[in-house]
Amino acid sequence: MNSTPYESLNKSESGKHRIYIGMAPGVGKTYRMLQEANSLREEGIDVVIGLLETHGREETAEQVERLEQVPLKEITYQGKPLKEMDVEAIITRQPQIVLVDELAHTNIPGSLREKRYQDVEFLLNLGINVFSTVNIQHFESLNDVVAKITGVLVRERIPDRLLDEADEVIVVDATPEILQERLIEGKIYKPEKIEQSLRNFFQRRNLVALRELALREVANNIEEIEELEGEGNYCCVQERVLVCLSTYSQSSRLLRRGARLANQMKARLYALFVEDPERFLSKDEIFYLEWCQQLCQDFGGEFLRVTHPDVAKAIAEVAEQHHITQVVIGQSLKSRWNLLLKGSIVQRLMRYLKEVDLHIIATTFVTIFYVHKFLLF
């Protein structure tokens, strides 16, 4: 028997949470969850269904047949009997793993907890492991983006922290073409909803955007977790743009160029100013840097300021620390004689940053005083 993290259940510890995430209904999240649950059951793991919707899908229903289902609780709402997941019955049953479909669901009014994800957190706190499913559009921070893509405002939402706190995240992927085929074949919705779905949410352009959003969100989440845990040997998936600033007026132009690049690449934006430890900044220079910092923040970037006697080394160190993939730097304003004697920053950066792309932007020398006069008057 292969060892899995779900074989034993230590009640003194929180349960483990595995989330199956997809770009849209019908990609196969529930089916994949059931497949893996049945495999674990065959290995001797105690797996039960807490709540699961087959939506009339035959393949899904076949997977359900082999698993024990905890009976649902009946709740009367507005005179009608409705059924909801019975958390207390699951606790009494004490399984090693419970399957909970549609994590973003809102519970029937009168339930002990408002949202299904709160039921899941309650079970996890008691040491019960949970497998759950959710679509990318239900995460709170992506709500506006999804509404812009699809024109649909998703009302059932869950906190982003659930993705951060999950022990495992499994992306269940399908191409837009396959998903549309499944919809037309009646494997997602009933026949009367197919044509309307194809014209609205299931348009190809919507599915392409949602698929990219799902894959990118999970990749970014993995990167952030590994950063926090100090893992230095991971592969950086997300592009990161570093704009190197100076106290010359060209910096705002570089910052705008870097922001456009970051936007096109859907990348994180950083701006860096390297301060000479042997030189004091003038009031005009301090004012200008503060303005650049505000501009960077307006673009959604992070402003970095370090003190170092060697500008090129400082840029290289920051680039390595923040896993930078693109560096934007202005053309040198030094004289040819100075460059001949000391070399250019660009040449040194090319030696230091062999796997980073350098963008050298042509600049025109303008004094800070002139820029401030322009800005103020």
UniProtKB/TrEMBL annotation:
Residues 14-222 form the Signal transduction histidine kinase osmosensitive K+ channel sensor N-terminal domain. Residues 239-351 form the UspA domain. InterPro entries: Histidine_kinase_KdpD, P-loop_NTPase, Rossmann-like_a/b/a_fold, Sig_transdc_His_kinase_KdpD_N, UspA. GO terms for cellular component: cytoplasm; plasma membrane. One of its GO terms (molecular function) is phosphorelay sensor kinase activity. The keyword Acyltransferase does not apply. SUPFAM superfamilies: Adenine nucleotide alpha hydrolases-like. This is Osmosensitive K channel His kinase sensor. It comes from the Bacteria. Keywords: Kinase, Transferase, Two-component regulatory system. CDD domains: USP_KdpD-like. Signal peptide: none annotated. The keyword Lipoprotein does not apply.
